[in-house]
């Protein structure tokens, strides 16, 4: 049986071999696999929870970050395809939504299209509004990030941690800003589910219907409390909803 490398891109967040249905989570800019750590207690038996670990964070901190969405997806898809055949439900948050979408395309092209693609806190591919945010001076850039609520106060006030995190987050946001969907890409045939955090200052809800164009398999959307980082709000309800999208 193929195994995921110790410091590879895809990590198992639940015990046991990744067989059967696999929920594969893709974190936001600056995020890591541990973002979805709380999800492990909400996943029922028979379902594997997996999360992508981008370079430049966690146990991959010494590796240079990758600032290309398609390249990130290629690495994640390659590892998923080395696993025994199984059913995937992909969940991507913010930047992770784009990486998950590109990963879904690659899995589809390899004959393993996911059961469903779930996207969260992200405008449709190629629709990012502020493409210059990663170019802002350090103080302004950091203040913008902290205002979104995704950085713990203890980290926000630590200058050394800030200096370590800024290059990684800049790289992720550069990947987001420079990403463009490839012309002529065939739509997926799996359902796409879109999650919007109520009051999210980065995502205009009215634009989210554009995600419908990436699939012929049906599109639905829902609004949740919690703003841009709603993925840590009512985790059990969110995980149950994600799994319901993958029912055959």
UniProtKB/TrEMBL annotation:
Domain Thioesterase: 22-240
InterPro entries: AB_hydrolase_fold, TEII, Thioesterase
Highest taxon of source: Bacteria
Database matches in Pfam families: Thioesterase
GO biological process, one term: lipid biosynthetic process
Coiled-coil annotated residue ranges, if any: none
Similarity comment: family membership: Belongs to the thioesterase family.
Protein known as: Surfactin synthase thioesterase subunit
Phylogenetic lineage: Bacteria, Bacillati, Actinomycetota, Actinomycetes, Kitasatosporales
């Amino acid at each position: 049986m193929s195994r995921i490398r110790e410091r590879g891109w895809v990590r198992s967040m639940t015990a046991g071999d990744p067989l059967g249905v696999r929920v594969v989570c893709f974190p936001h800019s600056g995020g890591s696999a541990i973002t979805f750590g709380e999800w492990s207690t909400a996943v029922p038996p028979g379902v594997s929870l997996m999360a992508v670990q981008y370079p430049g964070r966690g146990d991959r901190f010494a590796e240079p970050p990758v600032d290309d969405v398609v390249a990130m997806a290629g690495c994640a898809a390659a590892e998923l395809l080395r696993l025994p055949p199984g059913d995937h439900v992909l969940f991507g948050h913010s930047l992770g939504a784009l990486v998950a979408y590109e990963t879904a395309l690659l899995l589809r092209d390899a004959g393993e299209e996911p059961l469903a693609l779930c996207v969260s806190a992200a405008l449709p591919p190629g629709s990012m509004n502020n493409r210059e945010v990663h170019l802002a001076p350090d103080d302004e850039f950091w203040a913008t990030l902290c205002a979104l609520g995704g950085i713990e106060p203890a980290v926000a006030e630590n200058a050394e941690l800030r200096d370590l995190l800024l290059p990684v987050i800049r790289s992720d946001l550069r990947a987001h800003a420079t990403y463009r969907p490839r012309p002529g890409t065939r739509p997926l045939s799996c359902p796409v589910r879109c999650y919007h955090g109520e009051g999210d200052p980065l995502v205009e809800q009215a634009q989210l219907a554009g995600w419908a164009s990436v699939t012929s398999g049906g599109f639905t959307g829902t609004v949740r409390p919690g703003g841009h980082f709603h993925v840590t709000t009512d985790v059990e309800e969110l995980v149950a909803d994600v799994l319901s999208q993958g029912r055959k």
